[in-house]
Design a protein that fits this description.
mainly alpha
Length: 318
C-alpha cells in the first residue's frame, strides 16, 4: 500500500483550528484545578456511554423498574473507566499533544493538571470502576476487565498499529452495548451484536478518514495514520456501513414477522438516512469524534428521534 502524502495545511484549515482553539483558551484561563481535572476526564464523551441502553431498549425492557439501577450503574461505571483511560492517555501523550494545534489546550498538556495527580486519579477511577462492576454483577466485571485491558493496550501501543487501532477503538463501543445487556441479564441477539460491532467500526473508520482528509497524516498524535491512505479508510468505512445496514435490516424484517404493525420495517428508513447523514459529515472532513457529529448535527438528531420513536412503537406494539 502506498504511503499517504498529507495535503499542505491551507489558510482555511488554520483559521478553523484557531477558531476551535480560541474559545478553549478562554475557558482554560478561567478554570480551577477541580474543573480542569473534570475537563481532562472529557465529560463530553460520556454521551457514548448511553450505548448501555441499546440492549435493554431493543428488548423493550428499558422502562421496567428492575432494569433502571443496573443501566444507571453501567453508565456511571463506563464514565469512570473511560475518564481514567483518558487521563492516562493524556499523560503518556503530553509531549505530542503540546505540539498539536488543538490538543495542546488539553488540561494536562497545558499544565493545568499535574501529571502525577492525573495518574493517581486515573488509577482510582479504574479500580473503582472494576469494583463497582463486580458489585453490580460478576459478569459485568468480566466485560469491564476486557474493556480496560484493551484500552490500556491501545493507550500503550496499539494506537500506533494500523488496523489494530481501529479494532481497539471499535471494541470500546461494542463492549458498551454488551455491558447494557450483561448488567440487566438480557440476552443479546446475533443481529444486535453485528450492528453494534460494524456500526462501531463505521464510526471509527469515519473518524480516521475525517482526520486524514482535513489535517493530514502528520498533524495528529496517531502515527498509525501514516500507514493509512484515504482510499483504504474509505473502503473500511463503506464495508462497515454495508454490513451494518444489512444486519439491521435483517433484524427489522425478522422482528416484523412477529408484529402486526410494520414499525420495525419503517425504522429502516431513518436508520439508513441517519447513516448517510453521518457519512456526509465525515466526508466533509468535519468529524472530530462521533459525539461531535451527534451533538452538532440537528438533522441527524431529528432522524435519530424518528428512528427511536418507530423502534419504541414496534417494541411496545403500539
Amino acid at each position: 500500500m502506498h504511503q499517504y502524502q498529507p495535503p499542505k495545511r491551507t489558510a482555511a484549515t488554520t483559521t478553523l483550528l484557531r477558531a476551535n482553539a480560541e474559545p478553549l483558551l478562554e475557558r482554560r484561563q478561567q478554570r480551577s484545578l477541580p474543573l480542569a481535572l473534570l475537563a481532562a476526564g472529557r465529560p463530553r464523551q460520556w454521551v457514548k456511554n448511553l450505548l448501555v441502553l441499546a440492549a435493554p431498549l431493543a428488548a423493550g425492557r428499558v422502562g421496567e423498574s428492575w432494569t433502571l439501577w443496573p443501566i444507571l450503574a453501567a453508565f456511571l461505571i463506563f464514565c469512570a473507566a473511560a475518564s481514567g483511560i483518558y487521563l492516562l492517555n493524556d499523560v503518556l501523550d503530553i509531549a505530542e499533544d503540546r505540539r498539536h494545534p488543538v490538543k495542546h489546550m488539553r488540561p494536562i498538556a497545558a499544565g493545568e493538571v499535574p501529571p502525577r495527580l492525573a495518574l493517581a486519579v486515573s488509577a482510582g477511577l479504574l479500580v473503582g470502576a472494576l469494583g463497582a462492576a463486580f458489585a453490580v454483577r460478576p459478569l459485568l466485571l468480566a466485560v469491564m476487565g476486557v474493556y480496560v485491558g484493551v484500552q490500556l493496550l491501545y493507550t500503550l501501543s496499539l494506537k500506533h498499529e494500523p488496523v489494530l487501532d481501529l479494532a481497539s477503538v471499535a471494541s470500546g463501543f461494542l463492549l458498551r452495548a454488551i455491558a447494557g445487556g450483561v448488567a440487566t441479564g438480557i440476552a443479546l441477539s446475533q443481529w444486535f451484536l453485528l450492528v453494534a460491532a460494524f456500526g462501531s467500526l463505521f464510526m471509527v473508520a469515519g473518524k480516521r478518514y475525517s482526520e486524514i482528509s482535513s489535517l493530514g497524516s502528520d498533524s495528529g498524535t496517531r502515527r498509525a495514520l501514516q500507514n493509512y491512505s484515504a482510499t483504504y479508510l474509505r473502503f473500511v468505512w463503506m464495508l462497515a456501513a454495508g454490513i451494518t445496514v444489512t444486519a439491521y435490516s435483517l433484524w427489522a424484517l425478522d422482528a416484523q414477522r412477529r408484529a402486526d404493525m410494520p414499525w420495525e420495517s419503517l425504522s429502516i428508513v431513518p436508520f439508513v438516512l441517519g447513516l448517510l447523514r453521518y457519512a456526509l459529515d465525515v466526508d466533509r472532513g468535519e468529524a472530530g469524534a462521533p459525539e461531535d457529529i451527534v451533538l452538532g448535527d440537528r438533522t441527524l438528531q431529528v432522524l435519530g428521534g424518528v428512528w427511536l420513536v418507530l423502534v419504541a412503537c414496534g417494541i411496545w406494539q403500539v
